[in-house]
Structure formats: C-alpha cells, structure tokens
Specification:
The chain has helices spanning 10-13, 16-31, 64-74, 83-89, 92-101, 119-129, 152-162, 228-241, 279-289; strands spanning 3-7, 35-39, 52-55, 79-80, 109-113, 133-136, 146-149, 168-173, 179-186, 189-197, 206-209, 212-215, 217-220, 245-253, 256-264. Helices cover 33% and strands 28% of the residues.
C-alpha cells in the first residue's frame, strides 16, 4: 500500500465542483488500496512521509504550491505538477519559447520589452500580425491580463499597464473561434479532450463582463470525434514542456490548429473528463508507479 498526498488549500475546497473531484480522486486511490492524505499548506512538513504528491491548488513559483513541489522533488517523491513545469507554464515568455524551440504550431507570436514600445514598432505589428491583436502579460492565468486591441491607441493603453508588471509582454495574432479544444496530456499521452465554448460576450474562456464573471461551457468529447491533428498537437505541445500533467488549449480554424497556451495543473472538475472515466485512475497509477 502506498501513501498519496493531495495538496489543497481552503480556496480549493470552497468550490463544490473541485471538492467533488477531489473526493473522486481519493476514492479511486483508496479503491486501489492506497492511503490518501489531504495536505494543507500548514501541514506541508508531512510531504516527505508521502510516496507521491498530487497538487490540486493554484500553482505559481511565488506561492506555497511551488514549495510543496520542490519539497517533493528534493525527497525523490513523484509529484504532479513538477517544479520545472510550474516555472515554465507560469511564465508565458518561457512557455512560448519552449514551444517555439520545438516548432509547435502557434499563432504568430512576438515578445516586446518596454524599449520596443514605439509607434513605429507597434504599427509594424499590426501590419505583420493583422487586426485585432492579442496582448498578454506573461504571468497571467485564468484569462486575466489578456486583452484584444484594435488600434495603436488601444495597444499602448494595455501595454503600458502590463509593462508595469513585467519586463516583457506577449503580442499574438488573433485567431477567431467559437470554442477552444482542451487536450489533457499526462506523461506524453492523451488523458482527455473537451471543448470550451467561449461566451458570446467575450473572446476568452473566462472574463469579467459588467462586474460579473462569465465562464465557458464545458463539453467532454470522445477521442474518435476529435480532429486527429488536435490530439497530435496537444501531445506535441505537452512534450515540449515536460512529462507532467498539462491542459493544452488549441484553436482549430479552417483545418489549421494552433496552440494558444499550455497549462500545468489543469482543471478536471467541470466535466472535462465525462467521456474519460479513467482519468483519476491514470493519474494515480502514474504517480504511484513513477
């Protein structure tokens, strides 16, 4: 019998969907004969006593989840997600650089420093990438600090706000679509696929509109109904980052597929796995046998 630690925080447990997913994961592990401990940040010293660690709280190099991942790695304990994946996926400059190095299909992407923010440079970007443009602050998550701009004045309004938070910003070609594919990848293999239907009032899967948060619709899709190039691209993007657990967001327009981003520690609580009942079994088996 092995001992699986599931690292959580109070925010994780305050969401009923996340709580139900955690209970399902625990039940799967216990049905396989393993012991499961929920570990809160205050209990972080328990990690060296675990045989494996599954992080189910927001990952960021600046918070305690990264400390938990590093502690597990230091003690030779298999962990999802690993410290390297957290570092890469939490910085979009780093993430896109890995994807570009492996020649993964992306929308046209440019990195700008504050010294590049000139009218001439921005004018050229609109000429090169088209209108509108997508501007991202590199540490963004949950679609925060991702904006669509249609002219030079709007670009500078957003860029000057973002450049106060980071030395660089990401500028990308806009790819229009009604939904994003989310391809779950674990250790270089397909874990699940779903569609995130984008709300009509925004271009993002999550946004604040008139003071209210609107969320995407989630539809689990069987592998046989997914375009093969989407599955291949998702696995290719995950492998460009590492061998951990990733949620790869892909737009598939007119037969062309583009990776929008790779997320470590992806959501598995909103029905993403409805067509894939073995998701938590595969995660537990991977961790325990790693």
């Amino acid at each position: 019998m092995s001992r699986l630690g599931i690292f959580v925080d109070r925010k994780t447990l305050s969401n009923s969907e996340q709580l139900n997913a955690l209970i399902r994961c625990r039940d799967v592990a216990e049905n396989k004969g393993h012991e499961v401990d929920f570990i809160f940040p205050v209990d972080i010293a328990k990690i060296p006593k675990m045989d494996a660690l599954f992080i189910r709280a927001r990952t960021d190099p600046m918070n305690v989840t990264y400390v938990a991942a590093r502690m597990a790695r230091l003690h030779g304990i298999p962990v999802l997600d690993d410290p390297e994946s957290i570092r890469i996926c939490s910085d979009k400059i780093n993430m896109y650089s890995h994807l570009i190095k492996k020649q993964v299909s992306l929308p046209k992407t440019v990195f700008l420093s504050k010294h590049d923010l000139t009218v001439e440079r921005v004018t050229n970007l609109f000429d090169e990438l088209g209108t509108p443009l997508i501007v991202k602050e590199p540490s963004t998550s949950f679609s925060l600090r991702v904006e669509k701009v249609t002219d030079i004045a709007g670009f500078f309004h957003v860029a000057q706000r973002f450049i106060k938070l980071s030395d660089w910003i990401v500028v990308q070609q806009y790819v229009e679509s009604k939904y994003d594919w989310r391809v779950g990848v674990l250790n270089g293999r397909l874990l699940y696929v779903c569609k995130y239907t984008i709300p009509s009032v925004t271009f993002k899967i999550q946004a604040s509109v008139n003071g209210h948060i609107v969320y995407c619709g989630v539809e689990s899709v069987p592998e046989k109904e997914v375009p093969p190039q989407v599955v291949r691209l998702g696995i290719e993007a995950g492998n460009a980052i590492g061998r951990g657990l990733y949620g790869v967001d892909i737009k598939n327009t007119n037969g062309d597929a583009y990776v929008i981003e790779v997320n470590d520690n992806p959501s598995i609580e909103s029905g993403e796995d409805d067509c894939y009942p073995r998701v938590f079994e595969q995660i537990v088996d991977h961790l325990i046998t790693a």
